[in-house]
Design brief:
The complex is a heterodimer of chains A (88) and B (594). Chain A has 88 residues and is an all-alpha fold. Chain A has five helices and no strands. By secondary structure, chain B is α/β, with parallel strands linked by helices. The termini of chain B are far apart. The chains are: A mainly alpha (88), B alpha/beta (594).
Chain lengths: 88, 594
């Protein structure tokens, strides 16, 4: 991904309406994004374009990736696994 | 250097609830209106508001604006201005109905009226019993509100500048506000927005604290810009906290966890609430729990490497009970603490939630400053609304659901005032020759500095200083050293360095510019908190305890006044609280107890 494209994506991940997404998406950009294939990176760009509540419900497991969103399921699973202890 | 100039009748900074509401007034009045936002409007932090919006519609039971006014004055611990509070509660019904007409999908009763639910602190008949006053759209009230208002703005031809960051307020030699400088993030281009009216609706600055429920976007940009332009900040010592946010993350843990049997423990695994509240223990009120947690941390019994959090333990509960009665808690623990709360306790800390102070405004939305003996002299061309403004309706503590009301009423009011002033006013005033100089030199300094301070480290130092020295429960000696420490952090914040020098999409530069705003708010908060020697509302000091002479530590004889922090010389002055409502009698001082 070109630098400017990545930085645009980064801004759209680290400045969300919901704190939960700021944290989750920042963490994934830092720890998991680079390992994604080109196609997965493109899917991630589409995924973070979702509305905040919709995205958070998927990432938090409150809702399943179904219907039009089914193709996001493997990516969402990767984001969910990217949790760390923040307190220390 | 030649800087492009875009001319508008009005420029609004911020596209959350207050910004969108004021833009509707201006655009529908036929005025050429620009709205600048760091993000797409419906990603503003207003989206996170769930509780609802307060209005005494009386759809579910009898209610009256006067009762709502009483609750708000009492909630504010009598620091709220009673004229502004009466104005807000009387406008509430009209603003909610307008929103419904914009298409807001409020929950409804069986007979089709807007459904109303109870919310803490909202009572009927002057504090007698809880009343159903909150109007909501499921758990997405803020989200639905933004969508409705955004669509209305699109229809009214409001021009949106999305992913633009406002940099500085432009004032001329007479103090008139003539617009802002702003940077287009996609290109790094700095542009002057030359306007006849400038409205700040930039939201709060909760990111000054290490633990905050606020999204990362809440960096106090409007307050930083106002401070750099010499506008004082009002009542910045007052911040609302929640007792239990996930340490290091800020994500809220519902108080229901303690209700279901959760136990707070310190580093020695001791159930410390037994010492502070022998009867209620972990179910003591929010402020008692917050104070106890802070005391444990301050006395060295906190957990973790920095000994800066305590533990919320539910490992003794049946996992089925946790999954059934506390849905989502396990997920929050896993995602934000790396802890499975069925097996391990959760790290928690009192967490900042809402800023009561801000840019001083009249209830008309016009910004006011002390000048020539008048504490409320209007700054021509400048308006503010929402969390960045201090009208002041929340005073020392905000009631739940009054924040969405605030941004509707004062967003509309600021828009109306701007329309009124513009219709009476003249053409654009001439821009000063150096209108963009301050912004350009700030950016150049950040871009060119070598050996300067790291943005992330400086922000962390500020956040830890604020959390430790000016948190939910405050100590005189800690506040004093906090002042020294935050002034040290300020020096670093004035010397930021970034590695990436790119023009386009330079997020490092954007974060450095945000840091320069955050530090203005942090400094104002610390110095204002140190100066106020009483306890009132959310500002609670160990050295201003509850005594018969000063119930709850509140000292009206000396401290029934608004703080004004002057950023030019770090001085503090005060102005009277307006105790005179618009049409009814003053709600007389009394002890705030629930």
């Amino acid at each position: 991904m070109e630098r400017a494209d990545y930085e645009r994506l980064r801004w759209r991940c680290i400045r969300r309406a919901l704190l939960e997404l700021d944290i989750t998406l920042t963490r994934f950009l830092d720890a998991g994004f680079a390992d994604l294939s080109e196609a997965e990176q493109a899917a991630f760009v589409d995924l973070v374009a979702l509305e905040d509540h919709e995205l958070w419900y998927l990432v938090s497991g409150k809702e399943e990736c179904e219907g039009d969103l089914a193709h996001f399921a493997p990516l969402v699973e990767k984001i969910r696994k990217c949790s760390v202890r923040l307190a220390d | 250097m030649s800087i492009p100039v875009l001319k508008f009748d009005a420029v609004i900074v911020g596209a959350g609830g207050a910004g969108l509401r004021s833009a509707i007034q201006l655009s529908e009045a036929g005025l050429k209106t620009a709205v600048l936002s760091k993000v797409f409007p419906t990603r503003s932090h207003t989206v996170a508001a769930q509780g609802g919006v307060a209005a005494s519609l009386g759809n579910s039971e009898e209610d009256h604006w006067h009762w709502h006014m009483y609750d708000t004055v009492k909630g504010s611990d009598w620091l709220g201005d009673q004229d502004a509070i009466e104005f807000m509660v009387r406008k509430a019904n009209e603003c909610v109905v307008e929103l419904e007409h914009y298409g807001m999908p409020f929950d409804r009763t069986d007979n089709g009226k807007i459904y109303q639910r109870p919310f803490g602190g909202h009572m009927s008949n002057f504090g007698e019993k809880p009343v159903r006053r909150s109007c909501a759209a499921a758990d997405r009230t803020g989200h639905a509100m933004l969508h409705a208002m955004y669509q209305r703005n699109v229809k009214a031809n409001t021009q949106f500048f999305v992913e633009w960051m406002a940099l500085d307020l432009i004032r001329d030699s007479e103090g008139h506000v003539l617009g802002v400088t702003a940077m287009e993030m996609e290109t790094g281009q700095v542009v002057i927005f030359h306007s006849r009216a400038t409205i700040f609706a930039t939201g709060g600055a909760g990111r000054i604290f290490h633990s905050s429920t606020n999204a990362f976007i809440n960096t106090g940009d409007g307050l930083g810009m106002a401070a750099r332009a010499g506008i004082p900040l009002e009542d910045m010592e007052f911040w609302q906290f929640h007792p239990t946010g996930v340490a290091g993350a800020g994500v809220l843990i519902t108080e229901g966890v303690r209700g279901e049997g959760g136990i707070l423990r310190n580093a020695n695994k001791e159930r410390f609430m037994e010492r502070y509240a022998p009867n209620a223990k972990d179910l003591a009120s929010r402020d008692v729990v917050s104070r106890a947690m802070t005391t444990e941390i301050n006395e060295g019994r906190g957990c973790g490497l920095n000994k800066d959090y305590v533990l919320l333990d539910i490992t003794h509960l049946d996992p089925n009970v946790i999954m059934k009665r506390l849905p989502g808690i396990r997920e929050i623990g896993l995602q934000f603490a790396g802890v499975d709360c069925i097996k391990e306790p959760l790290p928690v800390v009192p967490t900042c939630h809402y800023q009561m102070g801000g840019i001083p405004t009249h209830y008309s939305g016009r910004v006011v400053v002390p000048q020539d003996g008048n504490p409320n002299t209007i700054v021509p061309g400048f308006y503010a609304a929402g969390e960045c403004a201090c009208a002041s309706v929340h005073g020392a503590n905000r009631l739940g659901t009054n924040s969405l009301l605030d941004l509707l009423v004062f967003g509309k009011s600021a828009g109306d005032s701007a329309v009124e002033d513009l219709k009476a006013g003249k053409a654009h005033r001439d821009l000063p020759k150096d209108a963009a100089e301050k912004s350009l030199s700030r950016i150049a300094a950040i871009d060119n500095r070598k050996g300067g301070a790291n943005v992330h480290e400086t922000r962390l130092a500020m956040q830890r200083t604020m959390q430790t020295h000016a948190g939910v429960f405050r100590f005189g000696d800690l506040l004093k050293t906090g002042v020294e420490k935050i002034l040290e952090v300020e020096k670093a914040a004035r010397e930021l360095e970034i590695k990436d020098k790119s023009l386009a999409w330079n997020t490092a530069r954007s974060e450095a510019l945000e840091m320069e705003n955050l530090i203005e708010v942090a400094k104002a908060t610390m110095l204002s908190a140190e100066a106020r020697k009483e306890s009132r509302g959310a500002h609670v000091r160990d050295d201003a305890p509850d005594t018969p002479e000063f119930p709850n530590g509140r000292n009206d004889a000396e401290w029934l006044k608004h703080t004004l922090f002057n950023p030019v010389d770090n001085s503090i002055s005060y102005k009277p609280v307006n105790m005179q409502p618009l049409t009814v009698e003053t709600i007389a001082l009394k002890t705030r107890s629930y």
